[in-house]
Write a structure and sequence with these properties.
alpha+beta, Butyryl-Coa Dehydrogenase, subunit A, domain 1, Butyryl-CoA Dehydrogenase, subunit A, domain 2, Butyryl-CoA Dehydrogenase, subunit A, domain 3, 3-stranded mixed beta sheet, 12 helices, 9 strands, 50% helix, 14% strand
Length: 384
């Protein structure tokens, strides 16, 4: 860890109290309005949540991966929309700049991102390109000292809020694979950039997504991340690898919240003259959930520490994301079952979590993509 334990404990206590006292009471408000109240957004910025992963020299907190995971576990104990508001900025939206950006790009954007003045989004997925990211069709054609960008990005988290987009586009039309892709910083007010209507989703109300449309959008060539064309896919993969540990931590926090709610209900709810928590079949669901949450917690922090130690964690990040997201959905299902009929009703909130967490098995790489990554890495190690 980069800080003394007392400082880290103080940060975690502050975040935990913020979740309990400010965010949980606002969950239903956000679910109904599909918007996070402005005063809560301001408090998040004041706490430094938008700059968690930005180095201190640029005004951020400079958290390690382990420290970031611990904070996100606490943030996971409330509606995912709150974490999502700053999650793309501290994660996939800004990490490309932080990892591979030029000194000028870092100095220009990272301080504003850390203060929450800019929200960053990650524009990779397209209408016909999701997990097969190397086959993206958005093009960026060099014209003088600008690139002319055309294409559509889909399901882009925080697009309606974004001030900048980390955009992946094909700069080499002759290369149909990963090698022809570049990463750009595109400011939201750039002419030719527009947004589609806000998506209507199964869950995660308050976490806004939409299409991002580029029509002859002229972006300065100097806005290629790192100043190097045709290496953007490598940047994207590094960003997503870190993001998978982040999402695993989020899954752990959400599962802990749902399990706590289910346990409290089981202790208070009585049937046949006794709390349902005394019934062995209920106990089995509680115990299975506790064991799986514990396992995911350990996996996530282990992967985070390995990354902090400079190790290649491609396999571990995918393992953590795959297991934690699948675990989270199993816990959600058991929690609804423990609540019984009440779990199906909106008044208790557990059905909202059931819908919200379903996305965790899809974004940042589906479970099936994580399986492919893990297996390919295993095979590669054998043949090397």
């Amino acid at each position: 860890m980069i800080r003394d334990q007392d400082t880290m404990n103080s940060l975690l206590d502050t975040v935990s109290r913020f979740v309990r006292e400010r965010l949980r009471p606002a969950e239903q408000i956000v679910a109904e309005a599909d918007e996070i109240p402005a005063d809560i957004v301001a408090e998040m910025k004041a706490m430094g949540l938008f700059g968690m992963t930005v180095p201190e020299e640029y005004g951020g907190l400079g958290l390690t991966m382990e420290e970031e995971s611990l904070v996100i576990i606490e943030m996971g104990k409330t509606s995912p929309a709150f974490r999502s508001l700053f999650g793309t900025t501290v994660g996939i939206g800004s990490q490309g700049i932080l990892m591979d950006g030029t000194a000028e790009q870092k100095a220009s954007y990272l301080p504003r991102l850390a203060r929450g003045e800019l929200v960053a989004s990650f524009a990779l997925t397209e209408p016909e390109t999701g997990s097969d990211a190397a086959s993206l069709r958005t093009t960026a054609i060099l014209d003088g000292d600008h690139y002319v960008i055309n294409g559509t990005k889909r399901f882009i988290t925080n697009a309606p809020y974004a001030g900048i987009f980390t955009l992946m586009a094909r700069t080499d039309p002759t290369n149909k694979g990963a090698g022809g892709v570049s990463a750009f910083i595109v400011e939201a007010n750039t002419p030719g950039l527009s947004l589609g209507k806000r998506d209507k989703k199964m869950g995660q109300r308050g976490a806004l997504t939409s299409d991002v449309i580029f029509e002859n959008c002229r972006v300065p060539a100097k806005n290629i991340i790192g100043g190097k064309p045709n290496v953007g896919f490598k940047t994207a993969m590094k960003v997503l690898e870190k993001g998978r540990i982040h999402i695993a931590a989020l899954c752990v926090g959400a599962a802990e919240r749902m399990l706590d709610d289910a346990l409290r209900y089981a202790v208070e709810r009585k049937q046949f003259g006794q709390p349902i928590a005394e019934f062995q079949l209920i106990q089995a669901m509680l115990a299975d959930s506790k064991a799986e949450v514990y396992a995911a917690h350990c996996m996530t922090l282990d992967a985070a520490r390995r990354r902090d130690n400079g190790k290649n964690v491609s396999t571990e990040a995918s393992c953590a994301k795959m297991f934690a997201s699948e675990m989270c959905c199993r816990v959600a299902d058991r929690a609804v079952q423990i609540f019984g009929g009440a779990g199906y009703m909106a008044d208790y909130g557990i059905e909202r979590f059931y819908r919200d967490v379903r996305l965790f098995r899809i974004y940042e790489g589906t479970t099936q993509i994580q399986q492919v990554i893990i297996a390919r890495n295993m095979a590669r190690e054998v043949t090397q």
